[in-house]
Automatic annotation (TrEMBL):
This is Decarboxylating 6-phosphogluconate dehydrogenase. InterPro entries: 3-OH-isobutyrate_DH-rel_CS (IPR002204), 6-PGluconate_DH-like_C_sf (IPR008927), 6DGDH_YqeC (IPR004849), 6PGD_dom2 (IPR013328), 6PGDH_C (IPR006114), 6PGDH_NADP-bd (IPR006115), NAD(P)-bd_dom_sf (IPR036291), Pgluconate_DH (IPR006183). Keywords: Gluconate utilization, Oxidoreductase. It comes from Commensalibacter nepenthis. Belongs to the 6-phosphogluconate dehydrogenase family. The keyword Oxidoreductase applies. It comes from the Bacteria.
Amino acid sequence: MKLGMYGLGRMGGNMAVRLARHGHEVVLLNRTRAVSDKIHAEAPKSSVVDNLEELVAALPSPKIIWVMLPSGDVTERAIETLGNMLSKGDIVIDGGNTCYKDDVRRAKILHAKGIHYVDVGTSGGVWGLERGYCMMYGGNQEAVDHIDPILESLAPGIGDIPRTKNRGSNLNPRAEKGYLHCGPAGSGHFVKMVHNGIEYGMMQAYAEGFDIMRMKGSDRLPEDQRFDLNMADIAEVWRRGSVIPSWLLDLCADALAVDGDLSKFQGDVADTGEGRWTIEAAIEEAVPAPVITAALFTRFRSRSGNTYAEKMLSAMRFGFGGHVEKK
């Protein structure tokens, strides 16, 4: 299929390359032309344009434009502009970290013009180029069916992850490949939002656990109660046969193998909005979410003084998303 990719950052650029490697024709647009040229060199069957007018003109109907920009005003302006340039039957995809309430509003505006809107919650970080992207998406059936070949190419596909023992033929085959139509517009980003809220809690649990173990060797304790524990070896042994393995633990192990003190990290842990939105949804629904809430508040506190636990959080964020601490 032929589509436009607007926004070629850490994830958008890799997604464009992955799509091109799977035979899709990708028209590339980025604010900085040098970035587009770099992706073009890595992506077979791609082409480069310099503005939205050229991007729209380069695509056949129905036109498919995937917007992969930071959430907020820049994405809002891009989709508003596209809504004035596209025609009935065209498809706008937002794959960034947008608040699902904005998706619902945008979809109504575009629907009035006959334009389809699909929101894709995308997880995979900087590793998605090789591993594939887990995607949770919302939109009307006609639109999501049309772009299914694109989504299937981006998804990890069926790998070595076994089905749960109680799931058989009733398992959605797309879910087994790593992508799922969750419902109407907004539902994809809603599910991804909760995914990120859970991620906050899991990361916090790992970070606190490693901090507890590290402090067991400190002079705060009587000498006969201290253990000199090797964090890298502990992370590695937990990866093998324990009940708490995960990709996040893999990232902990990688970071600790390089530097057990995590000295390159300060521990100033950012939050990109989805943890806050998850808690807001929990409040609206009167659902208790103490773990996710505490994890978010810990990130706030990290910016006024750091512990080893917060350095571990920074290490994991750098590992999966390439997130660099703000100085």
